[in-house]
Records
---
Amino acid sequence: DVTPVRISSVSIINHEIWVKTPDGIEHDVKLRGMDIPLRTGQEISLISALKKDGSHLHTILQNHTASKRWVLRDASALNTELELSPFNWKT
């Protein structure tokens, strides 16, 4: 009796980028499962939005140099890595 062999594989993309804030401090940001091409010297912004109840909605990575944008789903992890504090925009 022959038992068939089942083989499967999964590739996960991992990125580590360094972001320098206006005060000159560099922060490492690790992105998992997203293919975001970045090059040294490109200007990017990381923008995180929260719902009124304080729960995370999403984070956007904007590459100003390449005029491209990606929506990141794990805003909480990114906020923790960059030590970002939520704020409420009130008019």
---
Amino acid sequence: GALAAATSDTWATEIGMLALRAPRSIVTWRRVPRGTSGGVTLLGLFGAALGAAFIELIALGVHWSSQIAVAALAGGIAGSLADSVLGATLQQRRWCDRCRQATERAEHACGAPTRLAGGLAWLDNDGVNAACTLVGAAVACAIAWRP
């Protein structure tokens, strides 16, 4: 589940960047700039499902039970969605006053320090990614260990 969640989240991001339309916030469904944490596109959601399905196929290919394979698929999708929700709601948001741009980094690409503009100061993108994999693992375990 954890590996499926990480794969699902990565594929969602990479494939979603190819979308022609701007993403929407997974929480408010309003349009947001590309690269905004918690922004989703239909193409990105398809990428998330594809990434989780890829791990499911690997599980089936190494002859794991279909229940475990389905658990990986569900965990992957759940983890990716959790990543988007946490990114949109709780993840720290930072602002570069010099460039007047949003960023996820404490130091912007221009070299200027950034300031906290929202979210929880201690919850950065790495923390959200960790939560994503934990959710994926928990959902997969709940399904795989079901009698």
---
Amino acid sequence: MLHFQKTVKQKIYIKKTIKNWLEFFKNNNIKIKLDVVKEAIIDYRSDGKKLMRKLAEKYGLDIENKKDYEKLISRNNEEIPINGELSKRWNYAFHGCECGFYNKKHKQQVEVVLSNQPEFGQINSWFLLSYMKSTEKYKKEIEEIN
């Protein structure tokens, strides 16, 4: 039942996010396909979750465990640097209430809002736009957006 509730909440959240984006596009005369925005939101969340899991695993932690998660994001934990290398391809940096991931090869950016683990909070429109601009799959779709 809990999985079902999360899925329903996620679908509602995605619909609200898409509605806000469509309003922005309409007000700024930008044309973009609804399916593209929906797919980008889903990919963005998925990539963020995967990267946070990898970061936790690197330090022997489990983000599903609240205490482990708090250790991971705590600025007082000297065992986990505020920024560093996650892998040969990815760097990470904690800043504010987020953790940014940067793919050195593809220049892709994924920002994770650190609230509500393991779902990781809301999707910030600026972060989603940065993700789409830095993800090959979406670059052409958002060329008109500044």
